[in-house]
Amino acid sequence: MTCNGDVDRRVFVKAGGLALVSLGLDPIFLTRAAYAVQRAGGPAAGKKTLVCIFQRGAVDGLNMIVPYGDPFYYRERPRIAIPRPGANGGALDLNGYFGLHPALAPLLPLYQRGELGVVHAIGSPDVTRSHFDAQDYMETGTPGVKSTSDGWLNRALVHAKDHAETPFRGVALGQQLPRALRGAAPALAIDNLQTFGLRGNREDVRDRLASAFEQLYQGSATGVVASSSAEGFEAVRMLKTANPTQYEPANGAAYPRGPFGNAMRQIAQLIKSDLGLEIAFADVGGWDTHVNQGSSEGQLAQRLTEFGGSLAAFTRDLGDRMQDVVVLTMSEFGRTVAENGNVGTDHGHATAMMVLGGGVKGGKVYGRWPTLDPAKRFEGRDLAVTTDFRNLFAEILSGHVGTADLGAVFPGYAHDPAGRLGILG
Amino acid sequence: MRYQPNVTPTSRSLAGALLLMGLAGLAVPPAGIWRAPSGTPPDSAARARALHALNRLTYGPRPGDVDRVVAIGIDRFIDEQLSPEKISDQALEQRLATYEVLKTSPEQMARVFAQAQRQQLQQRRERGDSMRPQPPEPGMMPDSAQRARLRQDAMDNPLRRLLGQYQQATMARAVMSERQLYEVMVDFWTNHFNVFIGKGADRFLLPGYIEETIRPRALGTFDDLLIAVAKSPAMLFYLDNAQSVAPGSEPPQLARLRQARGRPGRMGFGMNPERAESLMARAEERRPKGINENYARELMELHTLGVDGGYTQQDVQNVARILTGWSINQPRQRPEFVFNEWAHDHGVKTVLGQRFPAGRGMDEGVELLHALAKHPATMRHVSEKLCARLVRDDPPDGCVDAAVHAWERTGGDIRAVVRAIVTSPDFWAPENRAAKVKTPLEFLVSAVRAVGASPDTTPALAMLVARLGQPLFGQQPPTGYPETRESLVNSGALLQRMNIALGIAAGRAPGVRVDLDRLALPTADIETLVSAVNKTVLNGTASANTLKTMRDQTRDLSGETARTMVVGMALGSPEFQRQ
């Protein structure tokens, strides 16, 4: 017996919910339990999955999706600009005005096939340049409101029309449940599927430990979470038979080494295991490039290589199943138009986001481009926001996940049909 | 539907299997059993208060601590803990004396780092890149083969060895020190002024940062601590201020080089002039050419005023300008603070309405830091964080007000502020007891202390903290680790805690040696066993359900196996996750 696999996974499914309650979490987590009782749906086939990727640290949208057609771009970034398409280390042309960072080459075919769309000059209406406030606002879906305790993805789970009753509806790959997934609907943080694997232990021992801890955490929960359903345990057994250590990506997909590649591989695995995964979430960090961010090569290029390579591998691995999947990338804000004194960029305002999937109307850069003209910039310095991030998020929820009650997911936000991007058709 | 195990195993086979798995206790003969200090049983209210004080001001009680605190009185206990210099700490000092890293200066660390880099490069050339042991992904546990390779690599790599020692020393202090409140405060400030060990030079600067900047000031005054942090090479590097210079400024060495250009013999022996030119061009390209806002922003947002502290983007830029020139003297050779006059912006600046006239140097930065340190928003923000750590996640106004008042009265004497918090009615309010969930470090250290164990001399215990999701010094963003229960409690994390609890009870957790006989002798009498463990490990806090579960789940087990299960359940129980 080793320390990492002693307690049966069923404990984690069951005690997970129980433990939250018994550790005295806010009433919202009690509503979670009550909610689980009300919603005992059957497993839904052909379920759509939304995969959200958070580029924490504020990605430089201007070097990720390069506005090489904007004259101010080269003027403001003498040392870090990505050269024009065709030049050595140049951007990969998208539409005659924007280009991909060359490190994102694996994504170019997806754009050309129309499976990848880009939204530029997107961001928050709130003016903060604090990473942590801006991340919170993007995850709660309520810019400027600090009191929101649950996340927009969790509210999307709460307001989903029908769903399978499994503990895998909302899964974050990581050690902490991100704010976006916290709330009344059940959601799991799984650092690594492998660490839930059991090594050579006997079934009866696992049962004993499982039932011991289950009973231990059940008492203070007054049985409300006894509703963790048969489907939940079925899902756990399915996960067990999926045998995480033996997973082979399909179609020769090769995920880059590193935490983000691992996360994407595991999301693909969860999707293929048909566990009822509706919303997956993964973080990818290293974007806070204040110093020596590089140009076509260098620090940012390295991060983008892992980022783009992982997304491309994920798409290849899932193959036809990408019809039911949308990947949405986001970042709390963008970076200054002008490079700073250290060949890097400081905190800015708008950035770019990507939407990837079989049902995406890709091959296009969406959003109104405000230009980099200093007169058009936010506070005279940063790329202005022309698309509120909630516009895109809401569109994806209604078009892909099937969320009807957008007002409940984005309280206080009047979704403007005229501002529709049409990125899902 | 309630889950019931499908199979009810026979007690014999189950007990056998548990034993085989190493769940049974150590096969050593019973040694001295811990006994409570003799005397009349103290009343339960005093015990509850003592337990609360120990939960918050220490890393959790060891067996017998509650009785000791009751015996000397809580006020005296708090006084003692607030004067750590008067507490003898011999056992810890003996342990620490074995760690070379604590005798290694920052200059030596820098040399070791440079040497390790050269060595690694050479090894890579010799073995080919693929042979290089990959460190585990953050949050992933290495398998045993990987662990062996990492161990080997750590021995080969002197920097890793020293950093491994530093992690051990950190764990040893948390578990073993008698100056517990001091160690708690060191952890608080280390997290408040977070530096990520994974960023470049911070790999070797971090031990010096904790030892020389944080530790001497953890119970000093806030402005002294703030200024020391601002001058620390680790922070200057982590938040990029070392590279922030006034636009148009140029280091004197570069100016000299520029003048020397074209004169033969001045660019380096045997270097071809074209290569020298290209090196020069490269240096020119990478040379800092303007301000960097990173530190200025986090200084106000995280270290002092708080995000709602009323500063503007203009203030951020002006703070950055004031701190231009605050840098590191040769980070890789002599990592120490330097003020580069040539890099300083000598213009007029205004911050939060205060005007800094033209022509000043380093002194304006010091004045700014003093002003930030005593700004009302700073007093409130930092007091709130202290109360969130010591009292409740959502800090009650009463104790924050008490802390701010003490701050104003004493000019930011941290000792006085902490005393004000722990003597405020909010600290003792019944609803705030057991109201916080332990962080991974707190959980693990408190578990080791609860069973009266000590860390061994391997980095394994620190690796367990990493497995629980908060590796020591491993938080990349400058916020430090969150400590609210919402961020600490999720199914995966709890599962890991249960596993580690069982591992410790079974004497199988890496990095810690446990003698269960100190807690309870193995016995077939389950009632005796459960009540002994409830007393020694949980200080009588077990709920009726926990007690019942302990009985139900061990009735059919042999004495030793039952003891292991009960201790494991105690450490993994909901009660033990709270403090």
Quickly list its features.
heterodimer, A: 425 residues, alpha/beta, Alkaline Phosphatase, subunit A, 9-stranded mixed sheet, 3-stranded antiparallel sheet, 13 helices, 12 strands, B: 579 residues, mainly alpha, two-stranded antiparallel ribbon, 29 helices, disordered N terminus
CATH architecture of chain A: 3-Layer(aba) Sandwich
What is the percent of helical residues of chain A? Answer: 25-40%
Mean pLDDT score of chain B: 85
Instruction: Assign an overall shape of chain A.
Output: globular
Strand content of chain A: 5-15%
Number of strands of chain A: 12
The helix/strand series of chain A, from N terminus to C terminus, equals HHEHEHEEHEHHEEHHHEHEEEEHH
Written overview of the protein:
- The complex is a heterodimer of chains A (425) and B (579).
- By secondary structure, chain A is of the alpha/beta class.
- Chain A has one domain: 3-Layer(aba) Sandwich (Alkaline Phosphatase, subunit A).
- Chain A is built from 13 helices and twelve strands.
- In chain A, strands 1, 5, 6, 7, 8, 9, 10, 11 and 12 form a nine-stranded mixed beta sheet that branches. A three-stranded antiparallel beta sheet of chain A has the order 2-4-3.
- In chain A, helix 1 runs parallel beside helix 8 and helix 10 runs parallel beside helix 11.
- The longest helix of chain A is centred in the last third of the chain and has 20 residues.
- Chain A is globular, with a radius of gyration of 22 Å.
- The N terminus of chain A is likely disordered.
- Chain B is mainly alpha-helical and 579 residues long.
- Chain B has a domain of 166 residues.
- Chain B has 29 helices and six strands.
- A two-stranded antiparallel ribbon of chain B has the order 1-2.
- The longest helix of chain B is centred in the first third of the chain and has 22 residues.
- Chain B is globular and about 90 Å long.
- At the A-B interface, helix 1, helix 6, strand 7 and helix 8 of A face helix 1, helix 15, helix 24, helix 25 and helix 27 of B.
